[in-house]
Input
Amino acid sequence: MTAEVMKEIRFFEEKYRMTLSELEEEGLPDNADYEMHEDYILWHHWSEGGSK
Output
């Protein structure tokens, strides 16, 4: 993984205080807002290497 990819993944891990795997295991909260849904999509993008 590139430094940029790691930086983006770390941003989401710090923002939500969990890893993407943990979030997927727990599922999005029922009260997840638009921003969290968008972050979830971007988080997946970066976890797959940030390829376009």
Remarks:
- The chain has a mean pLDDT of 93.
- The first helix runs from residue 3 to 16.
